[in-house]
Each structure stands twice: as C-alpha cells, then as structure tokens.
Amino acid sequence: MKEILVLAEHRRGELRDVTFEMLTKGRELSQKTNMDLTAVLLGHNVKEFAKKLADQAKRVLVVDDARLENFNAEAYQKVLFHLISERKPPLTLIGHTAFGVDLAPSLATELKVPLATDCIDVDFEGGKPVVVRQVYGGKVNVKASLRTSESYIVTLRPATFEAQEVAPLGGEILEVPSPLKEDIPYKRFIEYFEPPAGGVDITAADILVSVGRGIKDAENMPMVENLAKALGGVVSCSRPIVDKGWLPSDRQVGTSGKTVKPKLYLAVGISGAFQHVSGMKNSDIVIAINKDSKAPIFRTADYGVVEDLFKVVPVLANRILEVKKSGS
User: Fold this and answer.
1) Most CB atoms within 10 A, among 93, 184, 233, 302?
2) Residue 188 lies in a domain
3) Is the same domain home to 106 and 151?
4) DSSP state string for 67-129
C-alpha cells in the first residue's frame, strides 16, 4: 500500500502545532488517493508523542535514538533518507519551519526528488502532486505541478491549515531501528536560546491586539498596549508600524512577517491588505476596529466595529478592567 509520510516536529517536550495541521491535510489526501497516512517520529524517549500521533494516523514510525533527542538536520536527513529510500512514499510532508527549511532542501537533493517549499496547499492530480504557492509578496497564488518522479517532498506553511480533531484512529506504532552508526561531530546541538528579556513570540500568543497605520502616531501606541494588557494579550502589527520603527520586526504579521493563529485577533486601525490577512486569516476569532466601513479587513473579521479607534479602544480597555475588577 502506498503511503503519505508526515514528519512530526517537536521541541522541548511538545509536539508543534504544524504537526497536527499537516496530519489534517494528510488525512484529506489519504482519503482522496486511498493511500495510508503515516507519521514519522524521530527523537529519544518519545513514547507519549507516538501515542498522540497514533490517534491521528494509520501508523507511526518511531526511530528512537539519543542522537535524535534534539533536532539536528544532518541526523534527521540520514534517518529520513533511509526511510524514504526503503518505503518509497509518493509524498512526504514537512513543516516550512526553521527545522524544515534546514532539512528539506538537502534531503531532496540527496534523494534526487522534486521539492516544493512554503506551500499553502497541496493536492493530487493525474497521480502526482500539485501545489499552491504565493509569489510577488503574496499578491498571486500559483498552482504548480512537479516533474514526474517516484516520490516528492513538500513543505507546508504553518498555520495554513486548521488542525481538525478526529476520533482516535488507533494507528499502530512501529519501532524502526536507527540507521545512525556514529555521532555527527561537524554539526551538533548546543543549546536553546531564550528570547531576550521582554521578548515576545507572537506565534505562541492566544490573544493578539494588532495595530496598523490608523494609530497615526507613536505617541498613541501605549493606548493599544493598555488594551492588550487588559485582555491578557500581546501587541502585534502590520508592516507600516515596523517600517516606522514603532515596533520591532518580530511583531509583524503577514507575508513578510509571521503567520499567527491566536484564539483572538483584534485588528485596530488595520485596513486589511492581503499581505497582512494571509498571516492571520486562520485565527479563531477576528475582531476589527476601523472607521472605514469598506476596509478589506471586515471581509475577514467575525465581528466588526465601524468607528474611530480613538473612541473605541480606551473605552473597551476600561470596560474590560472594570469587569475583571468586579469579578463578573
């Protein structure tokens, strides 16, 4: 039986969200093509991860090796080269993350198979994959086919697909002997670097209050920060705010920034250009505040407030604090 492989990504004791997003897409393709869905888990002492993945796929291939405890692209490549060469899956899905960008190109080169990166969709037509990628800064979606091959590798952009919960599939867990024979002295994991004090990872935030050019002046930024603090969230932004130097680039949402998927995304004074929307469209709930009733952001928002943000934001922040204080 042919199969689709999904490489599970984990870090510091947690399976990353992109893993479940890829498994969701993988199940869709599996049903369409009648291929098996197989998760690949590389690591050390990862039995609990394997159990979680078995609920999402028909089988889980586990390679347990102390040299795989932390991500190392060279070690991963050696193991995946062995697995893909042996099993010959028509498609292997890898997250387009820092891990995937480091791993996928050299793996595809060694395997001599086609690679499509940073894809926002993948499907099968005529027995081989077709992918959708964004070009020209996200202005155009391109549907592309790949040259004929026995196998393909595709990296999928995180937060593009919504991870779906499914009834536990009870997939089998297969332990595969590690093909690693020796350490890799020329490339090894040293340590994780924590964000600097005060640093914020907007991709991990449950609540984002995102500000755009409608804020007008840097002196008005504290108003948005107060709202974010009242909500228990953090501040992100559209590109103009970074260009003006009012927030650092790691707070930018969009095609030239980061892709986010918070539980609540509050867009304040953001018009909603497609470059920005592509980075936040999969948020659970989107609320927009903009005085322009025709602003594109309202096409994405679940709820909208057509009003001057300077009238709404302070009142909203104060009301939230009042409710919290009263315990309501």
Assistant:
1) 93
2) no
3) yes
4) GGSS--HHHHHHHHHHHHHHH--SEEEEESSHHHHHHHHHHHHHHT--EEEEEEEEEEETTEE
pLDDT confidence bin for 291, thresholds 50/70/90: very high
Residue 312: pLDDT band (50, 70, 90) is very high
Give the pLDDT confidence score for residue 236 in this predicted structure.
Answer: 96
pLDDT in tens, 222-268: 999 999 999 999 999 999 999 999 999 999 999 888 889 999 999 99
What does the alpha-carbon distance between residue 226 and residue 208 come to, in Å, rounded to a whole number? Answer: 12
| Residues 122 and 251 placed together within one structural domain of the fold | no
- Evaluate whether 119 touches 154 at the Cβ level (below 8 Å): yes
> Which structural domain range is residue 290 located in?
202-326
Please check whether residue 189 lies inside any domain of the structure.
no
Question: What is the per-residue pLDDT across 158-199, written as a single tens digit (0 to 9) for each?
Answer: 888 888 888 888 999 999 999 999 888 888 888 887 666 556
Distance of CA 54 to the CA centre of its chain: 21
| Selection from 203, 256, 80 nearest residue 151 by Cα | 80
pLDDT tens-digit map of 209-219? 999 999 999 99
**d(C-alpha 172, C-alpha 179), whole Å:** 21
CATH number at residue 39: 3.40.50.620
Angle at 140 between CA 137 and CA 144, to 5 degrees: 110
Inside any domain, residue 181: no
Alpha carbon 300 to its chain centroid, in Å, reads 19
Same domain, yes or no, for 84 and 225? no
What is the distance between the alpha carbons of residues 228 and 262, in angstroms, rounded to a whole number?
13
Mean pLDDT (the chain) is 93
Is position 13 within any domain? yes
Query: Total structural domains in the chain?
Result: 2
What is the CATH number for 208? Answer: 3.40.50.1220
Sequence-distant (6+) residues with CB within 8 A of 84 are: 5, 92, 107, 111, 113, 151
pTM value?
0.79
